[in-house]
Design a protein that fits this description.
The protein has about 120 residues and is α+β, with helices and mostly antiparallel strands. The protein folds into 2 domains: about 1-25, no CATH class; about 40-120, no CATH class. About 30% of the residues lie in helices and about 25% in strands. The chain is built from 3 helices and 6 strands, in the order ββββαβααβ. It has helices spanning about 65-75, 90-100, 110-115, and strands spanning about 5, 15, 40-45, 55-60, 80-85, 120. It has a 4-stranded antiparallel sheet, with helices on both faces. A two-stranded antiparallel ribbon has the order 1-2. It is rod-shaped and about 95 Å long. The termini are far apart. Bound molecules: zinc ion. Zinc ion binds near residues 8, 21 and 23.
Length: about 120
């Protein structure tokens, strides 16, 4: 006398008579999509040495620790250059307003703090 069993009609697994197969249950391990790493944008504020004109533009680089160190170094060597970073989402939403503030003749650390969500490197 063998153990009575039946086959799951979906996956063919052998099951005890009263067992329900778990092949159609949602997977326990399904997790919400992985959290996206925060995407950062670096913004350069550059004062033209000859004309005094101020340009504010995003840099086309992927921000990581090395890039940040390089930009800090570059800003130290070139007083006409200042670098800031913020999330790309924030830049997309408030880029125009932030550009307006950074284009002012003087931008203190306090001014930057007041913008919020942006850090000078
Ligand atoms: Zn099954």
């Amino acid at each position: 006398m063998g153990t009575p069993f039946r086959k799951c009609p979906d996956c063919g697994a052998h099951l005890d008579a009263n067992e329900t197969c778990d092949c159609r249950k949602p997977k326990q391990e399904e997790r919400p999509a992985a959290v996206q790493p925060m995407k950062l944008v670096a913004i350069c504020r550059e004062v033209d040495r000859d004309t005094g004109r101020i340009a504010v533009y995003p840099l086309n680089v992927k921000i990581d620790g090395n890039v940040i160190t390089q930009l800090q170094f570059r800003a130290k060597l070139n007083p006409e250059l200042r670098y800031f970073t913020l999330t790309s989402g924030r830049w997309e939403r408030y880029g125009d307003a932030i550009t307006g503030i950074l284009k002012r003749r003087t931008v203190s650390r306090a001014d930057v703090d007041r913008i919020g969500g942006i850090v000078e490197l």
